[in-house]
Design goal:
Layout: E1 9-13, H1 18-30, E2 33-38, H2 41-55, E3 59-63, H3 69-80, E4 85-90, H4 105-133, E5 136-141, H5 154-173, E6 179-184, H6 193-197, H7 212-224, E7 229-230, H8 237-253, H9 270-273
Parallel strand pairs: 1-2, 1-4, 2-3, 4-5, 5-6, 6-7
Length: 274
Amino acid sequence: MSEHAPLGTAVVTGASAGLGKIYADRLARRGHDLLLVARRGDLLEDIAKTLRTKYGVKVQTLVADLGAVDDLERVAQAVAADPAITLLVNNAGASTLAPVAQTSAAQMQTMLGVNVNALTRLSHAVLPAFKARNRGTLVNVGSVLGFHTLPISSIYSGTKAFVVAFTRGLQDEVTGTGVKVQLVLPAATATDIWELSGVPMTTLAEGTIMAAEDCVDAALAGLDIGEAITLPSVNDAALLSAFTDAGAKLFTASQTGKPAARYSAAALPLAAAA
């Protein structure tokens, strides 16, 4: 298939399970050759063999822990050096859902390393070539917890808020070019990240969990129609517009150089003013 549809190579991180595995299948179906990145080499190779047979595309694998600095740099250099790469799906993620005081330093560092450092470094690795060729697609998978925080998600939400702000900035950077940058913000999705996070899916409200296949298919449909931000489970697109517009208005309102009137001595209670 790849001989008839020269779409280039798509890189998918976290490709051994969950959303990454589905992304690999869907992109191979579309005719992309693949470079699959994950920690679990045995699962990765099984997926690669299946996709080669099923779709006739080239599938390479790269076993790496993106939370480890040396592994991340090895992947970044490999990605930066390959001119065939036309698409990167930054899907790999790590989650521990617990109050900060009950989260270990190692768990915290894993979330920061994978969700922030790896996504940023790999975006940085592909964008120069994409911009030079005026062609390429970057998909950063965040979370609805990037704009909402639960008592057990302070660190995780913080990392995903970074993904939102970083990706939105990249979108502004490539405006007017042939480079596409999509931000995908899933809600609860049926993957193994829940068990790994310490919050089993059985504890979630019935009817709130989306199948991984549905999530990826919706994300790719959003990419096809040119969405900058795709929320697979949100039916009312006006909610997103209102949210982004409110943020822009709030930023504009901040550009005065003077304290707000409510902070003046005249507006404060006498005890506070004294």
